[in-house]
Each structure stands twice: as C-alpha cells, then as structure tokens.
Amino acid sequence: MPAVSAAQGRSTSNGGAQRRRAGRPSAAVLDKAGITAAALELISRKGYGGLTMAALAKVLEVAPSALYNHVASKQDVLLLVEDHLMSLVDLSGFGGGSWEDAVRAWAWSYRDVFAEHTPLIPVIAVLPVTDAPQTLAMYETVSKGFLDAGFPQERIIPAIVALESFIFGSAYDVTAPEDIFDSGSMAGSTPNFSAAVRSSAAGQERGRPADTAFSLGLDALISGLGALRK
Amino acid sequence: MPAVSAAQGRSTSNGGAQRRRAGRPSAAVLDKAGITAAALELISRKGYGGLTMAALAKVLEVAPSALYNHVASKQDVLLLVEDHLMSLVDLSGFGGGSWEDAVRAWAWSYRDVFAEHTPLIPVIAVLPVTDAPQTLAMYETVSKGFLDAGFPQERIIPAIVALESFIFGSAYDVTAPEDIFDSGSMAGSTPNFSAAVRSSAAGQERGRPADTAFSLGLDALISGLGALRK
DNA sequence: CTAATAAATGAATGGCATTCATTTAGTGGT
DNA sequence: ACCACTAAATGAATGCCATTCATTTATTAG
C-alpha cells in the first residue's frame, strides 16, 4: 500500500501538508528539537505503542526515511525524549533548605516523570551520560547537593545510584493494575500473604498503594543514607 | 505428562528436524513446561533478542503456529519464563535466623536472577500473581517471614513492594556499561559530578560498582524498614 | 459410529525499523 | 562563475516478526 498517509492534502482543509516533491527543500523541515517534540506529542496522545517511525514521520509531514538524516535509529529518538524529560525533574530543593527535603522533592518528581514513561527506563539505565546534556546537568546539581550536605566524595555516586534504582523500580509500580495482588482461587494456599494484602488495602483508604510504598522506602533510604554524612 | 520436551529427532543426530506431516501427531509434541524450557535455553544462548516465536519453534522442532495451541501470545511465553525464575530466588533465610539476614539473602538472589533477565521486569511489574504460582509462593513465604519478625500486618505489603522496587531498579543497574558516567567532553561543566565519579571509581578497586550501590541501599532499607517492627 | 475437540502444518497478513537509489538545494574552493 | 561535495528530502524495496486462518490428522466423548 502506498499509504496516502502524511501529505495528502491538496485543497481540502486538512492539517496543511502539501505534497513535497522529491529533493532537498529550501528550508530544512526536520531537526532534533522538532523530532523530540513530535515524539512527545505522539507518546502523550497514543502511548509508546503508537510511537513508530512511520507515525512520527506522519506527524512531522515527512517520509519515514527522512528521519534517518537526523537520527541513526529509533533508539536515538528515545534518547532524545529521555534527555528532555530529565529537564522536568525538580531540582529546586538543592538550592537551599535541608538535604532531606531536597532529596525528597527530587525523588518524587523523578518518579512521577518516569511513571508516565516506563518504556524509557531500560534506555536510561544504559545511557552513557555523555550523550545526554540535561541528564548530566541533573547529576551535577544533585552531586553538589550531596557534597554540600557533607557526604564523603566516594559515597556520593553509590548513594545516588541506590536512590535512582529505587525510583525506577517505583515508577513501574505506579503503573501496576489495582488487583495485581489478587491471589484469586489460590488464596487458600497463601494465608499470610492474602491476609497482608487485605490488611494493607483496608488501612489504605486515601492515596495510591504505590505512593504508600514509595513513601515508606524513600524515608528508609533517606535516613539510612543520611547517616553517611560527616 | 513428563513432557519429552525438546523433542529429539528420530535416529539421525542431525540438528535438522524430520519433517512431520500435517495433522495431529499421536503423541503431543508441545506443552507449557517444554516451551518454558526451550525459551530459557534460547535466552541463555542468544539473549532476549534471539527469543522469537520462530526461533522457539525451531528449537522445539515445530511450526511457529503450533505454539499458539498452547500459549495465546509471546507475552504468555514471557510469563511462563518469569514464573519459573521466581522459583530460583533464595528463600532459605526465612526458615530461621534473623529477619535482616533473611531479607538480605532474598534480595541479593532476587536481584541476581533478574539482572540476567531485565527484559522481564516490565512484565513482572504488571503481572497479576494469580497467573503465577511460583511468584505467589514466594510472596507467601516472604509475608510470613515479615509477620513472624513482628511487622504490623498492614505494613507488610508496602515494605515488600518498596524492597522489590529497589531490587528491580538495581537489576538494571547491573547491566549498565562500565563507562556510563563518563562525562567526556562535557566534564568541564560538571566539576562536582566528575569529581564524585572519579572518587568513587578510585575507592572501588574490587567488586562491581553496582554491588556497592546495592549493598548501600539495601542496608539503608533494611534498617529503615526494620524499625517498623513492633 | 460419529461429532467434537485437540494439535499439528503451511501459507498468508500486516506492521515494523531500516536501507538504498534518486532528486534537488545549498556550500566551499578555485 | 563554475564545480564538486554534502545535506535533506522522496519513494520503493527488504527482511524480520507476531499472529491468523484454512486444512489435515488423531484422539476422545456421547
């Protein structure tokens, strides 16, 4: 199928999109910032399942192959998105106030941002920071916050990594279905677990279960790691 | 059914799979246990990139479409694998000894198992335990361990979830490349971060960096969560 | 004995990322 | 002013992949 797709257009009041003839256009249509923005729009509209190179090209009113003049692969697009998201993480606490409060605000916003973007977590976990300026900027601010709070220099990176690991895992947790711990017909053979599930659901009432666990773990990490300060 | 599983070809020691004629064979060739075993073998040999329905069918010496008589989708295969892996997690500490030691042994082995299977983490995070008997069994044992250690019932699930979140995030961390924190040409603009990276690398010497961070975070979590006991 | 069901084959199907030949436009050097 | 090179677009493959469907054969239930 020729896929009428992107640029149909002509006279009808569509999104615009005149068909472009082959060859380099006078003004460049694409750049990394535009690709990033289009990817984010697509993700928010259709989710990560809807983020395909073809769909991205359609949003940008370009042939799919044109994207490859600006990124080497789809993975590259994900990297661009990932780095952009890092700029949304709240670092304001590291400007003043206690280390505990700064870490808490940072961790909650970091988790919230990536809870909406869990498919990027495997990407982040392996992404060399060199290629990600926003990510690097975040690490710089956080490192300085830890240093100023009195952390021994050689403990700073392990502490940040431990916190990040917890944050990434917790981001997945946010996306879990309500009934994930429903033991169903097997409940009879798991009395202790089933009782614990019932009991935590009962004591819950307000707020998401994921928030309760995150709060609990974060407090434990903050107090445990905080003890490393000189 | 013992499930001959990875069906071997007739007499010849070819890798080559006698061609079976169409129609139901007298003895069933496939079952879930065999599919699970073949998937695990494939994963260990070729990684998750090599785990395709076609490759799985080839290992089992069947046509790809035959798999769909036993599983509904590839996701289903991943679920089978995931549940099998849960049986490899070390629960022995919960038989006796201190809660701290039991949790520590459980957490390390849990992380080690899934560090080799990070592509399953998104699957687990969303998997209803009903469909996963081994997973359910693990939760039962761990829940009982927490209860016996004096945890208030309504705190047990949040505490386990917090630990699991940390474990999953840390499993990704194990797979990160050595030089992930290399700031390269940008190092000049990130003095605090770069110094922290150098310093933690220097103090490292033995063991993986991921182990240092995991140990640090796990100790913090254990001492913080342990304080919840009555 | 027969109808329903289970389990296999083999041939599509449609979606996907990616590549390649081709076209056109700007750019740097002489 | 010319020319070679490079940049940025189109459009037509390519190959991989999960999944579906019609068909065949065997077993099982009534």
How many domains would you count in the coordinates of chain A? 2
Class per helix and strand makeup of chain A: mainly alpha
Can you tell me the CATH class of the largest domain in chain A? Answer: Mainly Alpha
Radius of gyration of chain A: 23 Å
**Total count of helical runs of at least 4 residues of chain A:** 9
**Percentage of helical residues of chain A?**
40-55%
The CATH topology assignment of the largest domain in chain A is Tetracycline Repressor, domain 2
- Bin the strand percentage of chain A: under 5%
Mean pLDDT of chain A: 90
* Secondary-structure element pattern of chain A, one letter each: HHHHHHHHH
Describe this structure in words.
- Two copies of one chain form a homodimer.
- By secondary structure, chain A is mainly alpha-helical.
- Chain A has two domains: 1-71, Orthogonal Bundle (Arc Repressor Mutant, subunit A), CATH 1.10.10; 84-226, Orthogonal Bundle (Tetracycline Repressor, domain 2), CATH 1.10.357.10.
- Chain A has nine helices and no strands.
- In chain A, helix 1 packs across helix 3 (74-86), helix 3 packs parallel to helix 6 and helix 6 (133-148) crosses helix 7.
- The longest helix of chain A is centred in the C-terminal third of the chain and has 22 residues, at 153-174.
- Chain A is flat, with a radius of gyration of 23 Å.
- The model of chain A is unreliable at 1-16 (pLDDT under 50).
- At the A-B interface, helix 6, helix 7, helix 8 and helix 9 of A face helix 6, helix 7, helix 8 and helix 9 of B.
- Chain A binds a DNA duplex (30 and 30 nucleotides) through residues 1-2, 20-26, 28-30, 52-54, 62-66, 68-70, 73-74.
